[in-house]
Write a structure and sequence with these properties.
The protein has 231 residues and is an alpha/beta fold. It has helices spanning 21-32, 39-52, 61-66, 98-107, 111-125, 137-141, 155-168, 175-191, 213-230; strands spanning 10-14, 35-38, 73-78, 81-86, 89-90, 130-134, 147-152, 204-207.
Length: 231
């Protein structure tokens, strides 16, 4: 484990679907003694709740909004790795399935859902010592974060990473379909009215298309160390 600093900051990592934000953030947090908070997992949890309760996210928006109080999301940590609990059930693996991924993009366009979850996220990150990733962390959730990173990669690279991930898990999938899903999610995330995906003006751009996982992690850790030293 890397040497940990006593002066911990708040780190906001934003970027499109499949860019590797969660994996990079988890490893950097573990190495540096930070708490990792995956905000996208919270939107995925809402999507799973809607799917399992037969609510059409796009056509039954008002019904979903009216039932938000029935959704209880808890976060626990296993060696600094976040596990998601939906109404008492561990859904850490379920929320990574493709229907949850597409559903998350849809629920994230609903302003009331964002208000519901952003308040929860701000409370988690207000005392520093956290690495939080999502779509609008640097622009909306933690606008005062000491370090903001916009982590991205090409559409082809992101689709291939997801394809390999699914194949390794024994999940049948089609690369072209995954690529189409990535493009669709990008369109949804960048064009939604509520906190669209964009790079914060003061965020550092990190393109990982030609970087290995370890290279991306090392870059993030070095940025954190440099920011800690300044603060």
């Amino acid at each position: 484990m890397d040497e940990m600093s006593d002066k911990k900051i708040s780190v906001a990592i934003d970027g499109p679907a499949g860019a590797g934000k969660s994996s990079v953030a988890k490893k950097a947090a573990k190495d540096m003694g930070y708490v990792y908070i995956d905000t996208g997992a919270m939107y995925r949890a809402v999507a799973v709740w809607a799917i399992e309760n037969n609510i059409d996210i796009k056509n039954d928006t008002q019904k979903l909004i009216g039932l938000l109080d029935n959704i209880k999301i808890d976060v626990s940590y296993d060696e600094n790795v976040q596990r998601m609990h939906l109404n008492g059930k561990d859904v850490t693996e379920r929320i990574r399935e493709n229907d949850a991924s597409m559903g998350a993009s849809a629920v994230a366009t609903i302003p009331e859902v964002r208000v519901f979850l952003v308040d929860m996220q701000r409370k988690m990150g207000e005392n520093g010592g956290v690495i939080m990733d999502g779509r609008d962390i640097g622009t909306a959730v933690l606008p005062n974060a000491e370090l903001k990173i916009y982590l991205t990669a090409s559409v082809e690279e992101r689709a291939m990473r997801r394809y390999k991930e699914y194949i390794e898990k024994g999940i049948e999938c089609d690369y072209e379909e995954l690529k189409a899903d990535v493009i669709k999610r990008d369109e949804n995330d960048m064009n939604r009215k509520a906190s669209p995906l964009r790079q914060a003006d003061d965020a550092i751009l990190l393109d990982t298309t030609d970087k290995t996982f370890d290279e991306a992690v090392d870059t993030v850790k070095n940025l954190i160390k440099a920011t800690e030293a300044k603060n």
